[in-house]
Amino acid sequence: MKLVFYRIAFGMLLVLLDLHAPIDVLPDPLGYLLIFYELTTLRRKEVLFRWGCYAAGLLVVISAVTFFRPFYFKESVSGLLLDADPLLDHASGLLQLVLFYSLCLGTRELALLRGRSDLASSLRFRWRLYFGSTAAYLAAVPVARYVDIEPWIQLMTMCSIVAYFLIYLVMRRAGRELEHPFNPRS
Questions:
Q1: Other beta carbons less than 10 A from residue 73's beta carbon
Q2: CA distance from start to end of the chain
Q3: Strand ranges (DSSP E) for 15-124?
Q4: What does pTM read for this prediction?
Q5: CA separation for the pair 57, 60 (Å, rounded)
């Protein structure tokens, strides 16, 4: 189980890091595909991972569309493509909420089954931090077209990135701590 959580963490890192040369060196679809593949393994152990599997599959499609779009559509294309960006960004944000809900709470259930209450409480805290900052960001972005709330959006973006990184770290920790089966005698 250690490798499963390490691969999920690596997939999260691929999504988080954007290294652009002439093209994106670490494309998001690969990260989401890795997370999707590992969640198909975990969903046999905990039913909560099923929703994350669905969300990761949809995120593979959405991120592939946004990744390959510059190759097929030029800037001069009429407004149809540009109007789709906020919609895709919002859908992606909502699907990431579902994905991290599934990852954090599914892993939390596995931690509780193994007697790792400190890991379980850490997962719950990090999920709440990510949910609060991302939900506030998703609610503020449409309002930003009419009201000047740029500092609020920047703050929520930074909080979301910090929470994302904290979830990355707790996934690595889960890989270490949930590696061995629960032994009630120790």
A1: 12
A2: 20
A3: none
A4: 0.85
A5: 5
